Amino acid sequence: MIIEIYTVDKYDRESKNIREVFVKNFKVNRFNLKVTKLYNIVECEDITSIDLIARDILLDPIVEEYIIRREKPLFKGYKWGLEIFLKKSVADVVGESVSDVINKLIDKKFNVRTGKCFYFSSSRDKFISFIREEFFNDLIHTMEIKELDKNVFIKR
Amino acid sequence: MSLLKDKFLFDVFKVNLNQLVALNNKYGWSLNLEELKIIVQYFRNISRNPTRAEIETIAQTWSEHCKHKTFNSPCVLTIKDHRGKIKNIYRFKNLFKETIVYATEKLKKSYCLSVFKDNAGVIELGKESKWGICFKVETHNHPCAIEPYGGTETGVGGVVRDILGVGLGAKPILNTDNFCFAFPDKKYNVAKGFLSPHKIISGVVSGVRDYGNKIGIPTACGSVFFDDRYLYNPLVYVGCVGIINRKDVNKEVLPGSYIVVIGGSTGKDGVGGSTFSSQDISENSTSSHVQIGHAINEKKVIDVLMKAKELSIYSALTDCGAGGFSSAVGELASETGALVDLDKVILKDRDIEGWQVWLSESQERMVLCVYEDKIKELEKLCEVEECQMYIIGRFTNDRKLTVKWKGENIVELDMDFLHQGLPKIERKAIWIEPKMKNKISKISVMDYYDRFEKIISDLNVTSRRWIIQQYDHEVIGQTVLKPFCGVNEYAPSDATVIWTGQVCEDFSLFNGFAVACGMKPNMSDISPYEMAKYSFDEAIRNLVCVGADISRGAALDNFCAANPNNEKVMGEFSLAAIGARDASVDMEIPYISGKDSFYNQTNIGSKIYKIPTTLLISAIAPVEDVRNIITPYFKKPFNPIYIVGSFGKGFGASVYGRLFQNDNNYISPLNLKQNRKVYLKLLEAMRKGFVISAHDVSEGGLAACVFEMSLCFIGADININEIIKVYNITELEVLFGECGSKIVVEIDLKNEKEFIKLMKNFPVIKIGYTTKIPSIVFKDNGNILFTSDVNKARQLWERNVL
């Protein structure tokens, strides 16, 4: 299961800044972007535990909200979700720390892998090359572009 | 038959040389033919086949990274003039010992407490102080070239652990960072599979920032140099300074003691890192060479160690760096022996082989030699700090390294063979002197300002604020002089000054130390010898500018070069080493530690991209009273401005030369014996309170130096006529030349006479006055060469390139 954390629009400087750099460098006119943080709690199917982890460990409830999902990105209003994770062979120290905290909180040991998702709806090729240049290293990352369903259900 | 996968790789009685070479390439051991032959012979003598773990252990221990075999090898250096005629031949039995070590041994400074034998060098903090300062600078070039963020983070983590591993453990209190990159604002056609300079720089800077800031150590001293030749091979130097009680400087491994690991778990990350950094970079570098740092884990390790040291829980320790346990245990037990059971190691990967556990470079681990009766105490400490610990074996007295995995011995090696068996291969080195040209094209006075603007907006001169502002300079509350100082923190400092009263737990003390650096890599093409001397001089001059006591100072040498199998590369390197030796002897400042990194070249298809031989000199010296340090910005209008030191002819390796006069490669040689005398005299003037600001003339020349001193709203009116007359050089050389070594100083008007009297018989020239208006004016007699509004020029100088 994946916990997806996102900053509410009002406070979301990260998406705004990345969008500005992309628009400026690639001379794109209309472009919407939402950046989210992904925590893949590997081999965990217990929705109660996942919900507890999201709320009690990962979320800053003042500026952030979360979604719980499996494979498919769920964010409403976007066409694609571009997911970047660290490769399995690369140590994920943030994931290790989250795993340790989960262990303390609910006394269960899960492998946690962290990543990012970039939601966007246009200029696909340009945006992918921008992400490749700025956020991606072939040696340590995996990248996957997923098309979003039109009628998505978001559990918040 | 053994159930262990890959236990034996070849039969020593049947294998031929071609097969050995093929295996060497396949497994990336980076061993040469001579070494392979000696390994085969060793196993033939003991009548058995080597295990994979044994070959990997030998490869790691004998790697360039761990043993520095190139620098320690015999070398014949032939120097030819530009026509090809032989001028001189130097023969060295051991290049390192006859250059760097020679200088330190010749100087025999009593304040050096530990040199060249531990993880870092140690000097006295002040005269007869009970505290010592230790300093280490490491390179992490290969990892940063392929994954800049993780590579730099682990570089910082590694060098901090080096300081933790000095003696019985020093407390890390300052991090340094020095980089060499290709220009980030230039369009390069970067080959597929390699990262752009822009990406490398942002990754490296983020890595230093994230690790240093999180671990709670200030990063407050550094430099950046840009040159096209670092495109595929960026250089990332990371350093750490620590404080240690004199009584803790020595360590002792006691047979029977436990081998204990504290810190992170062990996984497959970084397996083969040290052999990877002992070869050229290619498109085939893999993710197994990438490590990611975990600053919080390292902070826990620091906290445990500082308490464990007070409780005398261990008698020796070292860090787990390149080569992992194989290197850490192998080094600690080199005089005793060790028996290790890898099944006791806490693993983070399930699918892992014994040799991988043994060689893993998983981060944030320290290996301790713990007294038998102190284990329980250490367990308690680790529990409180939530730090992992595990006992993996015992030190023995059989001078053998024995390692078990799943009940079988996977390593059984004689310590003597492991540490003394490496064959020494004579290296050939050649240096062909280039033809020196000192042509200076005349330009109209109207163009002077334009050139000044271009120079201060050149990346090798501009402000480093876009990097520096990301770092925490003040954590621990001891940084007296930060990278920027003065009004609005506009002026760049020459050195960093740290107050040590807090760490030494005596708040009545006001002493501390200063750290600075010097680097002039683009001089390597013209004269590697002078390059080393200029680098050394710049580092020391920076210390002088803040008023540090260089008569009790020390230096670190960090060389980086391309593939040493190339005779010309070896020529550049060995001549630089000779220059480094002479610089140290002439300045009477010893080396206490250092490092060399080779194979900084990239092969793309048939093309080879090499870096220029680069020497970073990092210098450290005590400061008697941190309240009396000198800062670089002008303090008051109408004070006299003097230049101390000497000018030289030529634009070789200067910013002006690169931008406007690249047919001029002339470098004036330095006289460092004379410079030492000048610097000591200037320090005397500083102690007497005559000097109220000082700044060294470096990249960009005098014009850039005066501009930087004027950044805090006090301007300057400069007349260069006297300099032209005394040194017989052109206006352009005075304004923008970088040859020679000089410091611009502001003298308190009321002390001017005493200053002149004190500096009599030393190269000192009055060049003007400070002014009320924030602008700089350069004149040659009555003729104005150019004027500049400092506030306007600052916009160019402060440009952000990322």
Fold and architecture overview:
Chain A has about 160 residues and is α+β, with helices and mostly antiparallel strands. Chain A has a single domain, classed as Phosphoribosylformylglycinamidine synthase subunit PurS (Mth169, Chain: A, 2-Layer Sandwich), CATH 3.30.1280.10. Helix content of chain A is about 35%, strand content about 30%. Chain A contains four helices and six strands, in the order βαβαββαβαβ. A six-stranded antiparallel beta sheet of chain A has the order 3-1-2-5-4-6. In chain A, helix 2 packs across helix 3 (about 95-105). The longest helix of chain B has 21 residues, at about 565-585. Chain B is about 30% helix and about 25% strand. In chain B, a hairpin with a 6-residue loop joins strand 4 and strand 5. The chains are: A alpha+beta (about 160), B alpha+beta (about 800).
Keywords:
heterodimer; A: 156 residues; alpha+beta; Mth169, Chain: A; six-stranded antiparallel β-sheet; 6 strands; globular; B: 802 residues; Phosphoribosyl-aminoimidazole Synthetase, Chain A, domain 2; seven-stranded mixed β-sheet; 25 helices; 33 strands; 26% strand
- Could you state the CATH homologous superfamily of chain A? Phosphoribosylformylglycinamidine synthase subunit PurS
N- to C-terminal distance of chain A: 14 Å
Structural class of chain B: alpha+beta
Q: How would you characterize the largest beta sheet of chain B?
A: 7 strands, mixed
Average pLDDT taken over every residue of chain B: 92
Low-confidence stretches of chain B: none
CATH class of chain A: Alpha Beta
The computed structural class of chain A is alpha+beta
By CATH reckoning, the class of the domain at 630-802 in chain B would read Alpha Beta
Query: Structurally, how many domains make up the residues of chain A?
Result: 1
Radius of gyration of chain A over alpha carbons? Answer: 16 Å
Q: What is the third-level CATH name, the topology of chain A?
A: Mth169, Chain: A
Overall, the morphology of chain A is: globular
The beta-strand count of chain A equals 6
Strand content of chain A: 25-35%
What's the order of the H and E elements of chain A? EHEHEEHEHE
